[in-house]
Structures are given as structure tokens and as C-alpha cells.
Amino acid sequence: MSYSVTEPSRRQKWVAGILVIGYALITILPLVWIIATSFKSPSDAIAYPPKTFFTPTVEGYVNVFTTRTRLSPDQLQAVGEPTTWYDKLVRKDGLVISGPSRFAERFTNSVIIGFGSTVLCIVLGTVAAYAFSRFKVPLKDDLLFFILSTRMMPPIAVAIPIFLMFRSLGLSDTHAGMILLYTAVNLSLSVWLLKGFIDEIPVEYEEAALIDGYTRFQAFYKVVLPQAATGIASTAIFCLIFAWNEYAFAVLLTSGNAQTAPPFIPTIIGVSGQDWPAVAAGATLFLVPVMVFTILLRKHLLRGITFGAVRK
Amino acid sequence: MLKSTVDRVAEATPHVIARRMHGLSDRALAWLFVAPSIVLLLAVNIFPLIWTIRLSFTNFRVNRPNAEVDFVGLRNYASILSDRDIWLTMQATAHFLIWTIVLQVLIGFSLAYLINKKFRGNDLWTTIIVLPMMLSPAVVGNFWTFLYQPQIGLFNYAVGFLTGADPSSFSMIGDVKLAPWAIIIVDTWMWTPFVMLICLAGLRSIPPSIYEAAECDRASKWRQFWTITIPLVLPFLMLAVLFRGIENFKMFDLVVQLTGGGPGSITELTSINLKREAFEKWRTGYASAYAVILFVTVFGLASIYVKALNKVKQR
Q1: Can you tell me whether residue A81 is helix, strand or coil?
Q2: Which residues from B are below 8 Å from A8, CB to CB?
Q3: Helix axes A103-134, A229-245, angle to 10 degrees
Q4: What are phi and psi of B271, to 5 degrees?
Q5: What is the mean pLDDT of chain B?
Q6: What does the pLDDT read at residue B1?
Q7: pLDDT-derived band of residue B121, with 50, 70 and 90 as boundaries?
Q8: CB-based contact A131 B41, cutoff 8 Å
């Protein structure tokens, strides 16, 4: 290895490494704690001092998917022996499962609205980004700034008229309404990111295709789209994560039918008071997919969160 | 001048046929591609904005659809700007904004500086540090109320372990003095990685040759840091502050789940206060004026800041 004045010394690297790893371990602790709590029994979860070692149980996961009622010993006898493993699990505490909870439904809503808005956002965003990247669009800079500026508005501030508008159009508390709303929210991100990705594809490819007799649309469809595939995929994941995490509009505009998981998870309560393992189980199921996507996206992360302003 | 065959053929072809041959013209395609996005944004963003502005001059209330709606002029604006409680929420927002930005810039930059020493495995640890940033603020905020529980909470236990204080003697979200810090701690935990990533990109964009030249001129490491590293990272840092500033000015989900604005209204940031006016007290006209004031503030501050940012970039 050649000597360089800018290469940090071994000691510097050691010190930097220890400090960064120390910070990383502290910062990851709350997330580890969520996952750990989801496998605790309710009494282990609220033990003092906080328990690091415990016997894992899936009670939290059973509780998040079901509603339970407490029965007296006589009534329990009348119900008979528990038949399934999850029945047995709750029977220990003198409870019987009285039905499914709404968690699965809320989670499904999150999936439908998240994927629906992502698809729409990518379709609209890709074509708009292509036009902004390749054509002379009048007032291009103003339009692009306008698209970005929609992101600066506090959601609560536009929520009042959207609430009124949705009510008169019959869109409040529907999947279609939420998909449309989240598409509009994420469109600025999608257009800006995709424009950056398409700008990076050399124009010569399309020109060659045009000379070969492709129409403009064919050139876009058959030449540019495949080239932009990675960019489109990472933009899609960003849109999905933001729609997945959104809370303000969801809590104001949905209630019974189209409510997503973020407003629902904090309302999970057990038979006696807040059931932290169940909340943690719901949170774990909700957060782990995002953690996986974050790890997959790590190379494009910076670009995504700065709307393409910083490219590595 | 000699024309190529292609040009001659093109000239001879009637216009309609030419268009069919090449599909839609570029101009038509451009409009076709841009229009849907613009229409959607106009419908879901600009139309509501105009509606908000219109409502802000009235005494309309959503929960009384049959009541007569009067035009009240600027009365809503006047009563908001002279309301002491609203100035208190503005102060709470400013306190939150300033401290989160200061802490995130200090910690984020330090982390980026250390990661840039390129120790082994720095990629892996960077990814781990980044994780909290992408998670749902509402869900995470809700779980932090568990970590902040006076006796059983992990946070209180850790503080007790380190300082020797009794973990049940203080409540981060129940105490008027501590609650503003409770939300600052969680926001800093979540968003420091954002500032860190941007700073890291800035640090990595500095060509090593500049440091080599400084080394030849016998500039001290300290001097190199202040005259090379800081000025070159500054535009990146300012961009990070812009993003964090706008986001935290809008802050809603995390704080609603953490403290709900309490205790009392000590952590009631403007978005939470606005939500209360609009969707709990149903003072729609009043809340609309409030929303307009917030827009103007965030746009005004952001555009002044962008001007400053551009000046730094040009230097």
C-alpha cells in the first residue's frame, strides 16, 4: 500500500470505529426492544428491572390477531377443553378467544393502499419525468418547482378542504380516496427522483432507436424504461415506504373501512389495560418489512430522502 | 446546398402521414405525459389550498352545515395573531425546531466525520444507524411511550443505571419540564442518520488532492478542518437543515403519539394545535386562516433559506 497523507492512521480508525459502533448499538436498542417485547409474556414485559432474558412466547402475536374475553371458572368448564394451540395459550390466563381482531384487516388496508398508490405514482411519475427530462416543456422549471412545493405543505393544513371534498365526492374512508391522496403526496418525490435517473441515461440510445424507425413512444417504452429499471424500482420502494408510514391523513380521513395500520396499532389494548407485547407484535410485523427494504435500498437511500438533490 | 435523401423525403411527405409515421409529435407527447400529474396535483393540492384561503375569510363550521356562513374579512387572522395560546404553540415549535436541528447537526456531522475515517465494516454500521429513519413515526412514537414509562421503561432504567437516580422518580412525558425534551430525544434518535448521510456525501465529495496540497503547505490538521472540510461540507449541511426544518415545522405524527401535545399544552406544536382547532373544535374558518398563516411562514422561511443556500454554493 502506498503512503498517503490523507489516509487516516490505524489509531484514528480504531477510535472512529469504536465510537460509531457504540452509537449504532445504542441507536438500535429501541428497535431490538420492540422485537424482544413482542416475544415476552405481558408480565415479563412490565417487569422491573426490565428483563433482558426471558422465556419467549408468541402470546403477543396471538393477542394482536384476536379479541379475548375473561370467563369465570364455571363458564370455562362449560366451554370445554381448548382445541387449538392458540386456544391453549390464552386459556392459561383464564381467557377464551372470542373472535379475530381488526389487525389483519388494517394490515391488508395498508398493503392495498400502499401498493395501489405506489403503482399509480410510478406510472404518472415515470411519464412526467421522461417528458421533463427529454422534451422542451414550457415553464419547465416553474412546473418542477410547483411539484416540489406541494411537499412543503403541512398535511393538516390541506386536510380540511380534502376532508370536505372527499365527503361530497363519497371518497372519505374508501381505498380509492386514500390511494389517490397518497399518490398526490408522493408524486413530487416520484417525479423528482425519476427525472434524475432518466437524466443519467444517454440520449444517444433513443436517437439510435428513432433512426431505426421507432416512434417516440416506442423509444420510451422499449429503450428508456428498461434502462431506468433500477431507478424505477428504488423510487417505487420509497413511495411504498412513505405511503406505508403515513399517519396524519389516515387518522383524519379514515375510520371504519379503509383505516391503515399506523393509526390502528397504538389503539391495541388487551383485556386489562395496554397489552404491550401485542402492540410490540403489531409494530414488529409492521416495521420489519421496512427495515428489510431499507437494507436493500442502502445504496440509493440518500438520493431518495433528498429528492435527488444529493447523489452519491 | 445539397439536401440529404432523408430531408427530401420528409419534405415531400404530407404532414398527416408524417405524424402517423412518427406516432405522436414530441410536443403532444410531452403534454400527454405531464398533464396527468399536474391535473392530480392541482386537484388534490392547489384546489384545496384555494378553498382553504376562501374559507379563512368566513366563520364556516363543518359540524353546522345548516348555519349561515358569514364573510368575516380578516377577523380570523386578527384573532389568531393576537391569541396568546397560539404564540405559546409557536414557541413550543421553535424550541423543538431549534434543538432538534442543533443536536442532529452536531451528532450527525460527528458521526459522518468518524465514518469517513473508513474503518473496517463502516458500511454495515452505517446501515444499522440509518434504520430508525425509515420507520413509521406514529408506530415508533407510540412504542417510545413504553420506553419512557417511569418504572418499567427501558429509557428510565438506563438513565437510572447511569446516573444513580431512581427510575420511578421521573416521567419524561408526564413532567412539564421534561416533556419538551422527550420529543426532542426521539426526533433526534430518528433523524440524526439523515443529517449524517448528507454530511457523509459532502465529506466524500471533497477531493483528497486539496488535503494533499494543504499538507504540502504545512497547514495544521486543525486549520485544514476549518478551512477545507467545513466550507466544503457547508452546502450539504445547509441542505440537511432545510429538509429537517421543513419536516419538523410540519411535525405531527411522532409527537401526537408520544405526548399528544401534553402535559397541558406544553408540547402542543402548531400542527397538533391546528388539528385540535379544525377537527375537535370544528372551527373550520378559523383553522383555515391558521393553516394559511403556517403556509406563508414555511414558504417564506424556506425561500429565504434557499437564497442563502445558493449564495453559499456559489462562493
Answers
A1: coil
A2: 117-118
A3: 140
A4: -65, -40
A5: 87
A6: 43
A7: confident
A8: no
Best probe of the B interface among A1, A11, A15, A23, by most B CBs < 10 A, is A23
The verdict on residue A228 lying in a domain is yes
Q: Search chain A and give the residue with CA nearest B299.
A: A152
- The residue of B51, B109, B127, B134 whose CB has the most chain A CBs within 10 angstroms, and thus the best one to mutate to test that interface, is B134
Q: Quick check: A220 and A210 in contact, CB under 8 A?
A: no
B296: exposed, middle or buried (C-beta count within 10 Å: 0-12, 13-18, 19+)?
A: exposed
Instruction: Determine the structural domain holding residue A256 and report its residue range.
Output: 104-267
What pTM was estimated for this model as a whole?
0.88
pLDDT tens digits for range B196-247: 999 999 999 899 899 989 988 888 889 999 999 999 999 899 989 998 998 8
Look-up of cell digits 438500535: A28
* Inter-chain touch B197–A302, beta carbons under 8 Å: yes
Could you say which of A8, A27, A149 has the minimum Cβ distance to residue B189?
A27
Q: Could you give the ipTM of this predicted complex?
A: 0.88
CB pairs under 8 A between A and B: 301
Out of 1.10.287.3510, 3.40.50.620, 1.10.3430.10, 1.10.3720.10, the CATH code matching B84-314 is 1.10.3720.10
- Of the pLDDT bands very low, low, confident and very high (cuts 50, 70, 90), residue B290 is very high
